[in-house]
Amino acid sequence: MLSLLYVILLSYLVGSIPTSIIISKLVKGIDIRQYGSGNAGGTNVMRILGFKAGITVIIIDILKGLFATVVISKLMYSPFPFNNYTPFEDITLVKILCGSAAVVGHIWTIFGGFKGGKGIATAAGMLIGIAPWDILIVLGVFLIVLFISKYVSLGSISAAISFPLTLIFRANVLKAEVEGYGTLIYFSIGMALLLIFTHRKNIIRLIQGKEHKITNFNFLKRKNKQ
């Protein structure tokens, strides 16, 4: 039990590394949470500090989720402490738990007063480690929606929703064999709901027509208080 708690806690701490806050301090000497949308994520860094800084943050945040899922999960040295009633092997279940802990750490980082990013990039890293083929479809949905709408938030929300929908379509329409579908579908729905929750303010701004488009990423301005 202690070893499972250990890898989950370590995954949370890795996910909690405040990449955007660190990069914004190094590049501009600012707290990114006081500018733009106020979000501590790669999109806001890109909006305020430019493409290079933003893409650096996004890549590192992806690697946090991937590292927790693929590397930290393998540090568990004792048998799984509970009866595993899922169709997954124990190590796969540990990967899901570690990846989820990293996402939670990114959203509620202990190193930033529990105010972090929205979890999309870290969740993408986790999914690369768990379901690499499905993440290609999710990425495709994100890029298509982003290209058409110019809203990163809408692309992210669409990508989050597309993950469980992809699993449902593959298993029930294409009749494909999806390993652990009975468990993975609930996990994917839960993760999608979490990511939609973290984008709740974006959803309100989208409805109000006040959301930032990607064409607005060149302006340095104080945090929007709306």
Question: What does this protein look like?
Answer:
Helix 5 (90-107) runs antiparallel to helix 6 (120-130) and helix 7 crosses helix 8. The protein is globular. It contains ten helices and no strands. It has one domain (2-216). By secondary structure, it is an all-alpha fold.
Broad shape = globular
Strand residue percentage: under 5%
Low-confidence segments, given as residue ranges, are: 217-221
- Element order: H for helix, E for strand: HHHHHHHHHH
Secondary structure class reads mainly alpha
Instruction: State mean pLDDT (0 to 100 scale).
Output: 90
Could you say how many structural domains there are in total?
1
Spatial separation of the terminal alpha carbons: 45 Å
Number of helices: 10
- Radius of gyration of CA atoms, rounded to a whole number: 18 Å
- Give the fraction of residues assigned to helices: 55-70%
Q: How many individual β-strands?
A: 0
Tell me about the largest β-sheet.
none
Secondary structure: elements and pairs:
Layout: H1 2-15, H2 19-28, H3 42-49, H4 51-70, H5 90-107, H6 120-130, H7 132-149, H8 152-172, H9 181-198, H10 200-208
Could you list some keywords that capture this structure?
single chain, 226 residues, mainly alpha, 10 helices, 65% helix, 0% strand
Please summarize what this structure is.
Helix content is 65%, strand content 0%.
